[in-house]
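Question thread 4412

I'm putting together a teaching handout and wanted feedback from people who do this every day. The idea is simple: show students a protein as raw sequence, then show them the structure tokens that encode its fold, then repeat with a second protein so they can compare. Below is the first pair exactly as I plan to print it.
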Amino acid sequence: MRSYYFVVVGRNDNPIYEMEYPPKPEENKEDYRHLNQFIAHAALDHIDEHMWQTSGMYLKAVDKFNEWFVSAFVAASGARFIILHDGRNEDGIKNFFNEVYEIFIKHCMNPFYEVGSPIRSQAFDKKIQQFAKKFLPLA
């Protein structure tokens, strides 16, 4: 069974939003979360290198750690979308990033949201979960 870890990292390298799909059991959640955060943070330098070498926003797989691939998408605002995945699914991940980017822009345009602060919206979280179900296969 495949698993995914998605995180939005702000322009100042601060985590804005994170999600695990499918959700992990509570007893192992903290161990996985720290490892996933470490892998995503370590990949930021690779993402910064790749984003200057291409004109596209979707950077595909920029790094690999053991069985985990790290794919990235760079928003116009400088925010980076990072997904850790243990299987190849380039088209699904690209579509996922495009859909997430659209709702991320809408969320940032909300006058009550301070750009760069953590996203705590349940509606945003629910949409991300729906996109994960649609574009990120578990089999």
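The second pair follows. I'd like the answer to focus on this one:
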Amino acid sequence: MADDEVVSSSAGDSSQTTTTESDSNKNDVPEMQNVDTGLRKTQGQALKQKIDLLLKATADAPIMKQKKWSVEADRKVSSIIQFIKKYLKLEAHESLFLYVNQSFAPSPDQIILNLYECFGADGKLILHYCKTQAWG
């Protein structure tokens, strides 16, 4: 904006053009802020939401006594992997693989809500875990 002010003060004819550009920019900015605010509200509501996870053992993985868990929607896959490792008392060097729909391994930075929206069924997201690579 400082550049616009310098241009408008140095030339009389271009000040009208600059003012028009500034006016159009002013109209664009509130729209973008409204969209951004709307996204924050949507994300804020999602953060309070809980997702039901059904964790199923595959191959050589130990079976968990409790298979159904409710987690915050903003949790990342990496935190779920860490939780399972701690629950099963696995060593730090032991690997744990997590799969969605028995077919692909989600990225560790993927958010649970995104997976639930794409692959959730019957109000829950089913994740399979194992200590060796099984699918994908």
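Top answer:
Good format. For the second protein you could add a caption like this: The first strand starts at residue 50 and ends at 57. Confidence is low (pLDDT under 50) at residues 1-41.
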